Amino acid sequence: MTSLKRKQINWLEILVQCKNNVREQITPFLGAQEQVQPELGTGAGGDPIRRIDLAAEGAIVDTLEDHEISFTLVSEESGIMKTGLSPEDHFVTIDPIDGTTNLMRGIPFYATSIAVSSAPIMNAVHAALVADLVRGITYTAQEGKGAFRNNQKVTPSRTESLEEAVVGVDLCTYKVQRVVSQLTGLIQQVKHIRHLGANALELCYVADGTTEAFLDIRGKLRTTDIAAAWLIVNEAGAKITTPDGESLKNRLGAKQKVSFIAAANQELHKNIVSLMKTEKET
Ligand code: IPD
Ligand code: CA
Q1: Which residue(s) pair with 82 in the sheet?
Q2: pLDDT in tens, 136-179
Q3: Sign of the C-alpha dihedral, residues 224, 225, 228, 232?
Q4: Candidates 47, 199, 260: which one to mutate for ligand 1, based on the most atoms within 8 Å of Cβ?
Q5: Which atom of ligand 1 lies nearest, measured to the CA of 47?
């Protein structure tokens, strides 16, 4: 990816337009969740497709096409779609609605997530947006320029002590016994644990200091869900790695899975990784 191509496009402005269009296009579907949903098959990521997910995806694609951008879409719903004459110039990785179960049940915590990269790899993401669609809070980041929450620069928590930490943990898997056995030491030490049901947004909570850490070591989260939040966490100055402490270089795709530990600062991250390592060895 040449930096020249990047400079020609004001990605943040376009991503905000995408988000505004998503909000507009999903509005007619909100509140209609109890109605019987038509069968639309299964999305690229393996979950049933809902009209609201397709409306959100369509809103993002339409906005990009309005700007005559040539891109490869990497979506949880439609998988890979190439648009324009040079689709390899930009990869746009989206989870149109992160937290669909919350949305369908009226739990007010769900988001849209959009990441732009020069290659379909996590650490090539250079522009990102995650927007809380309920509260109208938008997180954005650009490589080397920091992370923002409604245009205000964010910084993560400075808390280094696990005893003072609020830690998000996604335990939603039938392999819960294996996951919990690796997390027992951590859960015993932290002040509070949480899982709110939209992992992209929960990662943004680590970026802006709302929580101290968020972990998903199930091995079942799609990389499409966290591509944007990965950049937001990094640009805020927090740390997100594999459970072994390595950098995330996962391929972006609806079928590609990722496990991670995100923590507000180096010290907290080190403590969490070493606690998990100890549990693994015992
Ligand atoms: C889901 C949410 C949820 C996590 C699931 C994801 P979706 O995203 O992030 O918190 O537990 O694994 O699939 O399906 O609503 O986009
Ligand atoms: Ca989704």
Answers
A1: 72
A2: 999 999 999 999 999 999 999 999 999 999 999 999 999 899 89
A3: negative
A4: 199
A5: 14
